[in-house]
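Dissemination and training. As part of the outreach component of the grant, students in the summer workshop were shown how a complex can be specified as a set of sequence lines and then modelled as a single object. The example used during the hands-on session is reproduced here so that future cohorts can follow it. Participants entered these lines:
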Amino acid sequence: MQSATEIAPDMPALATETLRVSGLSLARGGIELVRDFSLELSPGDAVLMSGPNGTGKTTLLRALAGFIRPDAGEIRFGDLPPGEAAADYLGWLGHADGLKHNETPRSALRFWADLTGQSRKAILPLMRGMAVESLIDRPASRLSRGQQRRTALVRVALSNRPIWLLDEPAGPLDGGGRARLAALVAWHRARGGSVIAATHQLLDWPEAKRIDLGAHR
Amino acid sequence: MNALGAVFAREARLAWSGGGGAAGPAAFFLAAITLAPLAIGPAADLLSAVGPGIMGFAALLSVLQSADRLFGDDHGDGTAELYLLSGVSPAWLVLAKVMGQAAATLWPLPVIGCLGAMMYGVPVQPALIGALALLAAIPALSLIAGFAGALAAGIRRSGLLIALIATPMMVPVLIFAAGAGRTAFEGDERAVANLLFTLAVSLGTTALAPFGIAAAIRSRLG
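and obtained this result:
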């Protein structure tokens, strides 16, 4: 089992922020998925969202990221709406991993570090933390689904943003991968970061708040 | 490296390593200008008269040929979401992306256009002016193709939609770019005016299209 202290890249301090959601209602294709949903996510918090397929977990994450406009309710990062704040505060892991099949993790992660203005120095320690450092020069098309997911998680950590939104982070991960994900999340929370994850898996994150979206209908 | 430079370099690198780089559009362009005389007939006068026009027309088609991948791939693999959350202005980002892709894949078009026109019997000077016009047209053509591709991203059989959206928007740049080569062949001094108009359309498209592409990407994610 990987312990949180083993991940120790040299990164600038997080600009921590509280996410507040109040009275949020979301509909897709005329069907109301989420009604009157409220949440306060302070630095260090973790939320695990569960619920059957089609209960709006992904939709809720996409609304928090500002891709979908809610029908009612308010989302605030500190005082700012998602449209203005998402790029400053959010680390995003969507349904897809954001990898190009003919690009190696080394090139891809260097690109994302450059694009978001982060140092490339953190790439190797973070890849070591997810146990994918030996794959750094292998094109993404030759990585397994789990290895691609681990690489995408490295990209999230590399962004050095305080609030992580993770859609099925552990979906294709094996037992070892889930332990390393837990360690990565613990490291992030210890730095004052927070996490919201939509998941079908039983993730054992200490003191994580559990929300069943099926109960919000 | 600054953010926009990183986008430009990555797009050029990805185009080389995965998409065959410039080979796709170049092969398409060559095939089109090789086949056209077989359909038109061997009359030398006729071929040299239509040469500049065929070059402009075939260049347009070869730009359209890869338009579905430019933003369709980003939409499918999750890159588009990450771009919008990157903190870099989306309009600048897509401009760097389209230009990186164009620099890596479309540079042979003016070269083939010039040589192709000469093989059709067009004298050197008008052939060169036609090639310059193609070079000036590339920003407009690739940004319009990118705009149509961004609107159609994630739609099945997006090629049909892209052709319907992009073709009418490419009319002015085709008229001026092909017109530059044609009027130069006829010894008309309007060739330079046509060339400048092509450049003007490209500059105008460069100023406006990135906002349209950014809005299209955002709406396709909603």
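Chain A has six helices and eight strands. Students were then asked to discuss how this feature might be tested experimentally.
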